[in-house]
Amino acid sequence: TPLVELKNVSKVYPATVKGAPDVTAIDDVSLRIDAGDVYGIIGYSGAGKSTLVRLVNVLERSTAGQILIDGRDVAGLPERELRPVRLGIGMIFQQFNLLNSRSVARNVEYPLEVAGRDKATRAARVAEMLDFVGLGDKAGAYPDQLSGGQKQRVGIARALATSPALLLADEATSALDPETTHEVLELLKRVNQEFGVTIIVITHEMDVIQTLATKVAVMDQGRIIERGDVFDVFSNP
Ligand code: ADP
Ligand code: ADP
């Protein structure tokens, strides 16, 4: 079965100003992402990319359609049953979203605490993840002592700590310079290849898709206007 499947999903936000029209952020989108894929979703600002991410990790509810994660429809699940679903999905962000009052190690440990792992398991996993991202020597450092690229590597270590099958990367390199972007994309490639983690890459940058993704959907005004293998979609006839 596909790992993520959207069937005719729509998301309508009610008008924020009286008399203004409702906003259709996602408009009848169907999408299938297989386990092991690195799937890019590209589009201009306002296309609906972030809304799509928030629907997949169930931070928001769709207005219509089905969202299947590992074959299970999450759209109708009650809140208490969403916790294990969310723990199976890692996220990384444009602004890294690290806790500045916590050390690097304690940031990576955080999702393991939420998941209820015991102390010894947490410590071993934190060390393993920091080694994987090349920050074994920064465990005791604080986020504001790190470069942007190092912060995102901590973000990746944190996102993968609970061994999720799916990683959502929402503009994860948009705040980084080109060289650091390249390093982070290479690391994400390893995450896919060595751990078999499925990755959904949200971006407005074609370079990011071409470096990392194998499949791509192009979004515009809440719809998928083109999709396919990256090579086919971006090759000019
Ligand atoms: P488009 O994607 O532009 O709508 P396609 O010819 O690619 O046109 O697909 C036609 C329909 O088939 C889509 O609207 C969608 O409902 C379904 N479809 C195509 N590709 C996929 C996919 N990867 N995952 C899920 N549904 C798909
Ligand atoms: P993208 O990530 O591609 O920039 P978004 O998903 O953020 O696009 O936004 C898609 C559309 O939905 C935009 O028109 C945006 O203004 C609207 N939108 C997003 N979030 C909300 C919200 N919480 N309330 C109302 N409208 C929203």
UniProtKB/TrEMBL annotation:
Domain ABC transporter span(s) in chain numbering: 4-237
Entry annotated with the keyword ATP-binding: yes
Gene Ontology molecular function: any one: ATP binding
Protein name: Methionine ABC transporter ATP-binding protein
Protein family (similarity comment): Belongs to the ABC transporter superfamily.
Organism lineage string: Bacteria, Bacillati, Actinomycetota, Actinomycetes, Micrococcales
UniProt record, GO biological process: amino acid transport
Cellular component annotations (GO), alphabetically ordered: plasma membrane
Transmembrane intervals: none
Keyword terms, alphabetized: Amino-acid transport, ATP-binding, Cell membrane, Membrane, Nucleotide-binding, Translocase, Transport
Keyword Translocase found: yes
Function field: Part of the ABC transporter FtsEX involved in cellular division. Has ATPase activity.
Binding partners and assembly: Homodimer. Forms a membrane-associated complex with FtsX.
